[in-house]
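Class prep. Protein, please:
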Amino acid sequence: MRVLILLIPLLAGCVHPRPQSGPADFHSPNLERSLQYWTANYSTHPVNHFYVCATDLDQGNLVEALVYWREAGRLLDYMEMSPGAEAQSWRLRPKVDREALTTDEDVSLGNHVVPRRVWLRWVNQCITDGKAYVVPLKQAQAVFPKLKPPSPPANRPESP
């Protein structure tokens, strides 16, 4: 029983996809557009740096990836989607850089947190082995302008 209790936190880190060998060697027709979408909608930084590490490939084509967004200190899951479905390409990964989880005991049975050492290993692998992308905010906003709320109708006097 004691061994099972010790293994549970380790197994929680295993449920997440791991970067593959050669994680920067892939082709993706939609990744750059999806990075622009993410930047336009969720960033306030003038320049954004993303490090993309493949977790699933199909004959050299990207299917899924782990993405480290440097400016926000976030790990994101990316899944290749068709153009126009950029919003569906993204899912947040475990966030531990601001919530310093230092031991396996800090990690509960949930799969939304991992030990800090696992998170750091994923980030380091994205940076060292992944493909780097730089996305300027203004460029991203030109591709994905924010929708302006509709203006209220003008007050017109009612006609009899």
Observations:
- DSSP finds four helices and five strands in the chain.
- Residues 1-16 have pLDDT under 50 and may be disordered.
